[in-house]
């Protein structure tokens, strides 16, 4: 088979049709409802105890840390109260061995150490004064302590604004003794061991932070409906009606919120949508990836959508073609046909032979490659992936398959976004656009549905949002008119600012308890 035909055959396996999208949306809404009604459903639908989104007038100096994927970030955020903020931050890559450490202590002590370093570097006056004061006082007084929002982007069963136990690790983390523990208490213990003037005031999922940050900074007075991450992992948090979260009554928690906004932010944990695989697409490459992952059968939606996995899907698809003798991908004509490694131009030491060896950023590079003869793709293959002298045809095949994987991810992302928009009924008012033929309806502040997004895929994958929008238009309950009313905005550094905002809300709650 010619190379182009072989590549087209594999790319076609990733097609996700209009019918698939619509079936996906229906099932997504069903699983969202199920999660609101009972504990332990596939989609966790976790109540966050956050009942309002900010309006931009909030003020103060807060700290935030973010553990969620590849990096650990520490920041301090000055909220100016006029929808703007200043942020100082430091970032370190999380050492691989700590992601799979033997004990929680190893990871959390590392995190506390980074907070100490940050304070010494960026708030040294504050730090030194407090250390000095500590010599004469026992502990710190309220005013001397930074309130910190802890963005911890894994599924957590929250039981209060700064309390929550880890349900399961995702995204390659695996530390057995953390599961079932309160992650805020684990961090506070290590902070206290270093005598830092920091109180873990709020536990925040990155999606909730994104939602809060977008709401603080977004133009106009419309509150944001959904905060979504399409990065190393994927997930969304949205504003739900308290009365629809029926499991909260069973958990005995609803009365505390009566008389408030009538809303609560729900962390969907949609990465685990359809773990039972009733509607998700399933190519041989998806199956193999899952089987050899450290959490088979879990996070099945995430494994088809997010950055941690797309590179690995592509790697497996490419190797299947390389092994197919009838398709000349990365093939060495002058080779010894009896020795498999010498029939291919992929060097023996290439990361392409290793699990997780192909980085998802490569999908963005090749899908967006407009250079003559796909020079950029060929150079990247050669320099980063040790493929010798890849041809333009090789690069074309790689680009075709990579684009198919990226497009499928974007269309699946649209399923999640659409399900939230439809199930919350946000498009039904003020005019039912989906059933209206009024092509000239004006999109304005009153009928916009605002969505905040963050993560490497939405930010860097070429046309990710366009693909999402294309799929949204194919859903009858949204249609071209509804799609226009959906405003998607990047909430850069959302988790930092959002965590600060939640720490502020938590502080206000504490103060009103005391006064
Ligand atoms: C986690 C979520 C998180 C998402 C995005 C998923 O693996 O389960 O809690 O929001 O990644 O970071």
Automatic annotation (TrEMBL):
Boundaries of every Hexokinase C-terminal domain copy: 226-505
GO molecular function, one term: D-glucose binding
Keyword entries, A-Z: ATP-binding, Glycolysis, Kinase, Nucleotide-binding, Transferase
A family per Pfam: Hexokinase_2
EC top class, as a word: transferase
Keyword tRNA processing among record annotations: no
Residue span, Hexokinase N-terminal domain: 8-216
Record PROSITE patterns: HEXOKINASE_1, HEXOKINASE_2
InterPro entries, alphabetized: ATPase_NBD, Hexokinase, Hexokinase_BS, Hexokinase_C, Hexokinase_N
Gene Ontology CC, one term: cytosol
Biological pathway: Carbohydrate degradation; glycolysis; D-glyceraldehyde 3-phosphate and glycerone phosphate from D-glucose: step 1/4
GO biological process, one term: canonical glycolysis
EC numbers for this chain: 2.7.1.-
Family listed: Belongs to the hexokinase family.
UniProt protein name: Phosphotransferase
Organism the protein comes from: Baudoinia panamericana (strain UAMH 10762) (Angels' share fungus)
Organism lineage: Eukaryota, Fungi, Dikarya, Ascomycota, Pezizomycotina
């Amino acid at each position: 088979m010619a190379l182009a035909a072989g590549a087209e055959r594999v790319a076609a396996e990733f097609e996700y049709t209009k019918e698939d999208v619509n079936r996906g949306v229906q099932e997504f809404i069903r699983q969202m409802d199920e999660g609101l009604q009972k504990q332990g459903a596939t989609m966790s639908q976790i109540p966050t105890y956050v009942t309002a989104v900010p309006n931009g007038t909030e003020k103060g100096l807060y700290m935030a840390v973010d553990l969620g994927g590849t990096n650990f970030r520490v920041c301090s955020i000055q909220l100016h109260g006029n929808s703007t903020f200043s942020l100082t931050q430091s970032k370190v890559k999380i050492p691989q061995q700590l992601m799979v450490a033997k004990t929680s202590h190893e990871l959390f002590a590392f995190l506390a150490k980074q907070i100490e370093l940050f304070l010494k570097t960026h708030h040294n006056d504050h730090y030194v004064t407090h250390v000095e004061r500590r010599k004469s006082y026992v502990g710190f007084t309220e005013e001397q302590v930074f309130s910190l929002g802890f963005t911890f982007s894994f599924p957590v069963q929250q039981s209060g604004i700064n309390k929550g136990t880890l349900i399961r690790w995702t995204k390659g983390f695996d530390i057995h003794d953390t599961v079932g523990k309160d992650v805020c208490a684990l961090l506070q213990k290590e902070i206290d061991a270093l005598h830092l003037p920091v109180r873990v005031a709020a536990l925040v999922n990155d999606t909730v932070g994104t939602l809060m940050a977008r709401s603080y900074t977004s133009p106009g007075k419309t509150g944001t409906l959904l905060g979504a991450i399409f990065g190393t992992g994927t997930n969304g948090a949205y504003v739900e009606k308290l009365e629809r979260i029926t499991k909260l009554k069973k958990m005995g928690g609803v009365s505390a919120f009566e008389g408030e906004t009538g809303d609560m932010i729900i962390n969907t944990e949609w990465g685990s949508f359809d773990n039972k695989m009733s509607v998700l697409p399933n190519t041989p490459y998806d199956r193999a990836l899952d089987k050899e992952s450290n959490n088979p059968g879990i996070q099945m939606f995430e494994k088809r959508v997010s950055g941690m996995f797309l590179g690995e899907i592509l790697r497996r698809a490419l190797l299947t073609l390389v092994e197919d003798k009838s398709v000349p991908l990365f093939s060495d004509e002058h080779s010894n046909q009896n020795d498999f490694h010498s029939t291919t131009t992929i060097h023996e030491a290439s990361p392409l032979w290793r699990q997780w060896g192909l980085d998802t950023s490569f999908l963005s590079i090749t899908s967006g490659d407009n250079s003559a003869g796909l020079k950029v793709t060929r150079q990247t293959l050669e320099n980063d992936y040790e493929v010798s002298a890849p041809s333009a045809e090789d690069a074309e095949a790689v680009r075709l398959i990579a684009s198919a994987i990226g497009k499928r991810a974007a269309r699946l992302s649209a399923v999640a976004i659409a399900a939230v928009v439809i199930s919350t009924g946000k498009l039904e008012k003020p005019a039912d656009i989906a059933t209206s033929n009024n092509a000239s309806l004006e999109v304005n502040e009153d009928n916009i549905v605002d969505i905040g997004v963050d993560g490497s895929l939405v930010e860097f994958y070429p046309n990710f949002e366009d693909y999402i929008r294309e799929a949204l238009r194919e859903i009858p309950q949204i249609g071209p008119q509804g799609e226009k009313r959906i405003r998607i905005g990047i909430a850069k550094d959302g988790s930092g600012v959002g965590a600060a905002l939640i720490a502020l809300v938590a502080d206000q709650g504490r103060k009103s308890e005391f006064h």
